[in-house]
Amino acid sequence: MSSTRENTKVQNAQTIAAESTSNKPPRSRPNAKSAMWQHFEKIYNSKTNKIEGTKCMYCEKTFVYSVANGTSLMRKHLTSCKKFPQNVDSSQTLLSFKTTQKDGRQTSEIGT
């Protein structure tokens, strides 16, 4: 009688465990999209269709991408990218030099 009771307890425990796992929604990977992907273009391997590199949308520099390093290299690049809008100092104007020829003489003018 005790073995029957123990078997029933084991079966009940197995049933409860099975029901508790079946009631859970399927585990999905969290949407861990980094904000860095807004500034980089993905470069796919044509054979495997996996991401093998990235390209900066501002300076068009390319980088090798690995899942192990994630987006750290992209974040580091943006801090030093000369064409990234947040890194451009708009308080300083860029000077342009115009070279003209007058009467056989070359003259330069500064423009903004």
Arrangement of strands in the largest sheet: 1-2-3
Unreliable stretches covering 5 or more consecutive residues? 27-32
Number of helices: 2
Q: Would you report the number of β strands?
A: 5
What level of helicity do the residues show? 25-40%
Radius of gyration: 31 Å
Order of helices and strands: HEEEHEE
Please tell me the overall pLDDT. Answer: 76
What distance lies between the first and last C-alpha atoms, to the nearest angstrom?
98 Å
Q: What does the largest sheet look like?
A: 3 strands, antiparallel
Structural class: alpha+beta
What share of the residues does DSSP label as strand, in percent? 25-35%
Inertia-based shape: elongated
Q: Could you describe the 3D structure shown?
A:
The structure is a single chain. With 112 residues, the protein is an alpha+beta fold. It has a domain at 32-84. The protein is 27% helix and 25% strand. It has helices spanning 2-22, 72-80; strands at 40-44, 51-56, 62-64, 96-102, 105-111. Strands 1-2-3 form a three-stranded antiparallel beta sheet, with helices on one face. Strands 4-5 form a two-stranded antiparallel ribbon.
